Structure formats: structure tokens, C-alpha cells
UniProtKB/TrEMBL annotation:
Pfam families: Patatin (PF01734). Keywords: Hydrolase, Lipid degradation, Lipid metabolism. The active site is at S39 (nucleophile), D177 (proton acceptor). Residues 6-190 form the PNPLA domain. Signal peptide: none annotated. Gene3D superfamilies: Cytosolic phospholipase A2 catalytic domain (3.40.1090.10). The keyword Hydrolase applies. A motif (GXSXG) lies at residues 37-41. A motif (DGA/G) lies at residues 177-179. This is Esterase. It comes from Polycladomyces abyssicola. One of its GO terms (molecular function) is hydrolase activity. The lineage of its organism: Bacteria, Bacillati, Bacillota, Bacilli, Bacillales.
Amino acid sequence: MTKVGIALGGGGVAGCAHIGALCALEEAGIQIDCLAGSSAGAIIAALYAYGYSAKELMEMVPNITKRYLDYDYHAFLTKLIKRNFKIQGVIKGKRFHDLIANLTQYAHIAELNFPLALLSTDLKQARQVMFISQPLANPCSELDVITDIQLAKAVQASISIPVLFKPVMHKGRVLVDGGVMDNCPISAVRALGADKVIAVDLVFADPLDSIDSLFSILSRVVSINLAIQAKYTTRQADIVLHPEVGSVGLLDFSKLTTCIEAGYEYTQKRMREIKGALTMTDGNHPTARTPIKHVYNLEK
């Protein structure tokens, strides 16, 4: 029986398009058997694998705002004034970690009953790190596999963009954003045993009218490199989705709902192609998520 996996790539706030894509797939009756996420995609992948439906995520995620970004300007300025250049990141990441931990009841990734892989990068060893919930069907010697970690901490590591977020320390490792080495984790989905892979890639490097700030220059350099990376990695997928989210800043939380809608509408338009690429057969799939029983509660 065909085993379907989805790779959710990074893209900052644009990653909310993943929710819309998952919702459209659910409505079309396409069951997902395994899931991998990198950077922003790790957030959605983790919550979905934990048991939240796409519709629950559509209600939940728009309530996540900038208040969950704990900027550490005081430490940044203090170290800058003292010329202590051991500045690890402007955002501590603890608030976001605590948010995910609460939503997943402080579960460890190995406790999930759904095949999940989240990617990160070990800066010290220059190695790709994969957090997995179950043993890999197709092991790879080129990366380090970790199962003993809290799900929220794995997500935090996967989204920790260098310099912007502080790295996550775990058993001697210095972990940063998964997109540094693999922004759209198609190979991770294959390693989980997927026969067919749907990749949701949110990287665009279209021409810009102007680049007028240090942050815009850094963002542009990153997007160009990721776009080049995607040309090669996405070839491994059976079908690649590029939701048309438009111009969205990395942390532009005002565009959350817009990105969700864009992902939903785009995936619906391509549903015939998706089903053709998957060549799905009737019958029960070997794996299925267990719906969670508790009710989430985010302050509005």
C-alpha cells in the first residue's frame, strides 16, 4: 500500500501556508502517513503529528503573535557596549519553547505514535541533526539521529535562525535552524519510509525593487541560497507545492491568516495533479494519528 509523506519547508511566517495545504489535503481524503519539517515547517509538523487537525491549527495559529518572541535587547546592548562579541542571538526563544511545550503537554518526540522527523543543524560538528519519533525505515549515515528530546525543544532547535535566535544547547551540541542544511526535508520523509512525497516549498527569490536595510540584505542572501538549494532537493519529491503567499516578512505576524488561506487555495487548485502524482489506492493506511483529547487555550 502506498505510504504518503509530506515535507514542510522553512519560510518564517509564510510557513503558515502549510496549515492551509494540510487542510486541503485532509478535505480531499488524502491521508498522511509520515511527516517531516524544517524551520517554520517543524512547528506545523510537530503540532500536526502530535494530534492537532489542520482545522484546529487554523484556529490556533493566528493567536500566536510577537509577544512570544522574547527579544533580549538588554543583553545584546550590554555585550555590545562592553565589546563582548559572544552574542548568540537577539531572541532567547524560551517563550516560544514554552508555548509549544504547553500545546504538546511537554511530550518527548519518542512518545508520539506518528512517524515524524524534525531537522536541525549542529554548528560545532557541522552535521545535520534529525529528531525522530520512530526508527527510520531507511537509515542514513550522513546525519545524526536523536530521539531523546522534548518535542518543544526539538522545534525550538529547528527554528533557531542563526544570530536572530539563540542556539539550543543539547548534550554538548549547538543546534540551530534546520534550513541551514536542508530547508525542505524531502530526504527525511523518504528516510521515514514514504513511497510518495508531497513537498511544500516556500522559498522564493524573485527580483526585488529595493534592498534598503541590513536585515533585508541578510534575508535576501539567505533566500537566494535556499532557492538554489531547493532546485536540487525538490527533485526528490513526487510533487512540489509552491503556495503563492506574496511578499511576507520573516516575522510579519500580521500575515498569518493570509498565508494560511494562500496555502489552502493553492493546494485546492492543484489537487488533481496531487492525486495523479500519488496514484493513491483505496483501503486503510498502515498508520494514523491519534486525535488529542485536551483543548488548547491561547491567550488572545
